[in-house]
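Fold it.
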Amino acid sequence: MSDWLMWVAVAAVGATIGSFLNVVIYRLPQRQSLVFPGSHCFSCGQRLTALDLVPVLSYLALRGRCRHCGKHFSPRYALVEALTAALAVLAVYNYNPTPYAVVVFVACGALVVGLFVDFDHMIIPDEVPIVLLLLGLATDFYHILSQGTAVMVSFTEHLGGKTYIAHLPMSLTGMLVGGGVFLIIGWAFERALHRPALGLGDVKLAAGMGALLGPGFLFLCFFLLAIMSGAVISVLLMAFGIRRRDESIAFGPLLAMAATAVLLWPNVIAPWMLRFNGG
């Protein structure tokens, strides 16, 4: 019973945060306050009460309608709440009730915001990669304090008969590698296709994930998974006539989904990528 109560509590916290993420997804691109005014119906303007805002359950109880005017709410509100609840449960399930589980959940929450905002507006707010960067820096700083230079990236140089070793933080190195790789790829594709291929928001998101994952194999898994899924989805969209070859496809949602998968299941994704690439 205590286990069930814990999972229900984790899911409830996740869904509640998902309700706030709905506000962020709608207001952040418009640079509106995330606090004022309070949640209200866009049709009749009535402020929503606590009973109207119980994550997922209120939507189901009211059949997706406003209590006051009867207008339909988008089912995406309940979807984001349920998705965030599931992410909270998965983070705790995979990493136990630890600080790193909180790091993974917060990162996934930021990626949910980036996914839906990019899907709606073809932009990734700067706040999303900033959250990822701060999480990466905080996690890296903790590891350095507890384990020293063993968790840092080391470079060895031989100058004048002497050996010099430079130790660089994993997070900052990963940020530079991640952002730099995507920046170069975007530039190369733009020159080849004569149109923008990657937005600056995609580059910033890659830099944030580089800070969180480091410059090693996990970032490579994230990169390859995003590229592979992007190629498959692009082909499918063109095959079904949903997109033409000359139309842009938002890459941010694919980056967000790939990043979430690597954060939640690194021990599954990494071996699969090794086998897929003949490792």
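The chain has two domains: 1-96, 98-279.
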